[in-house]
Amino acid sequence: MSEHRRSLSCWPLLGHWSGYPKTLREILKTYQDRETNEDALEALVENGLAKSRTSAMKLRNYLSGMGLLEKTSNGKFTPSEIGQHYLLTNADEPVQKALRDNLSAISEIEQLLTKNQMTISKLAEAMDDEYDISWKSDWQIRFRLNWMRAFGMVERLNEKQSIGRYPEWRTNSNEIH
Predict the structure, then answer these.
(1) What is the 3-state secondary structure (H, E, C) of the chain?
(2) Of 10, 70, 103, 112, which has the most beta carbons under 10 Å away?
(3) Per-residue model confidence as pLDDT tens digits over 88-125
(4) For the segment 6-55, what is each residue's pLDDT rounded down to a tens digit?
(5) Which residues of 104-123 are buried (b: 16+ CB within 10 A; e: fewer)?
(6) What's the chain's average pLDDT?
(7) CB atoms closer than 10 angstroms to residue 1
(8) CA distance readout (Å), 148 to 13, 66, 89
(9) Is the full-model pTM beyond 0.70?
């Protein structure tokens, strides 16, 4: 069996992390309801889900790489089986699975945060030390944490719950999937 290559890039959706579930549903529904890819791209921009046609195309490709959209034999993008399941149920689990299966460092972040709550800088350090995964800045970790937070995988602790000066993160469960 060949190893599935997980994406190194993580993109945020427009808006606050708490709006990701609604935004993702709107994007998937747009691809489900439009006749052509061009119609879907235009609708994403018109409805404020992407800033430009170019960013809408990048978003489409990103969500396709995450396994939430798929390209049919006639070339049209449509919600994948996982994307359709999410549209029908609004359940976090299909998106959690897509994140774990298709985006690098998600499982590793979960493993580290299951052991200890951490700040973003400590998490970046641990990712490099334990998994040899690092980026030039902490934005890729922040983007991942926001996706994970939006779909119930992690939580950000407030200052009173955190040990140090900066907010810490932890998993929402002790189970690793």
Answers:
(1) CCCCCCECCCCCCCCCHHHHHHHHHHHHHHHHHCCCHHHHHHHHHHCCCCCCHHHHHHHHHHHHHCCCEEECCCCCEEECHHHHHHHHHCCCHHHHHHHHHHECCHHHHHHHHHHCCECHHHHHHHHHHHHCCCCCCCHHHHHHHHHHHHCCCEEECCCCCCCCCCCCEEECCCCCC
(2) 103
(3) 999 999 999 999 999 999 999 999 999 999 999 999 99
(4) 777 888 888 889 999 999 999 999 999 999 999 999 999 999 999 999 99
(5) bbbbbbbebbeeebbbbebb
(6) 90
(7) 3
(8) 13, 13, 18
(9) yes
**Closest by alpha carbon to 25, among 95, 75, 93, 76?**
95
- Using the predicted structure, report yes or no on whether residue 174 has a pLDDT greater than 50: no
Residues 51, 58: Cα–Cα separation, whole Å: 11
* Tokens, residue 24: 């993702």
Task: Give the pLDDT confidence of 36-49 residue by residue, as tens digits.
Answer: 999 999 999 999 99
Angle between helices 139-150 and 120-131 (to 10 degrees): 100
What is the CA angle 82-141-41, rounded to 5? 45
